[in-house]
Amino acid sequence: MEKYRTGKGLTAAEIEKADGLILAALQNLPSHLRERHKYLFSKGFILGLADQ
Amino acid sequence: MMVTTSIVLSVSARRTSNSELPRRFAGLEGQVVLTKAREDRERELLATVAAKYPYLSREAYDALARVVFKNRMSADDAKQLGLELGARADSHLPAQEARESAGILSQALLTLPENDLRTLAGTWRSTERERG
Questions:
Q1: Exposure string for B46-65, b = 16+ CB within 10 A, e = fewer
Q2: A25 contacts B101? CB cut-off 8 A
Q3: What is the pLDDT of residue B13?
Q4: More confident call, B70 vs B28
Q5: Do B91 and A44 touch (CB under 8 A)?
């Protein structure tokens, strides 16, 4: 099985499935919490890119 | 404090006798001194959380126990939970924001049905195996 190039050893399908479930879970939250998490995740992602 | 509150509010407590506590929590309840009423309430909450996350590692369960029993989440707890709950970008955030993000994600995941949690747990375990 082809591995997705993230260094996490997961296939693209596995990552897509997991991300879909997490996004579905976040949809169950009130909008202000959902937006706050979106902001924090984006910030962490950007900081991670800056580290590389 | 906000992190713990969000988790506590999101679970539906049910009556659980001491004998129903998962075996993996044996001994953990003795680590803190609680009033009887609070102890009963927190045993219920811990059992409920454990039932929601049957596939996390012992380290993650310990972190959850500390959150429930001590009403706080340390940076190490947040890191462990964030890792296992899929908050992959959190490792780059300042500690306070990483705790907040992990808490929000924890609250969200508690709303998922059992089968979805099982799928996520399988994905995370695959990740851990690949990391060695």
A1: bbbbbebbeebeeebbbbbb
A2: no
A3: 34
A4: B70
A5: yes
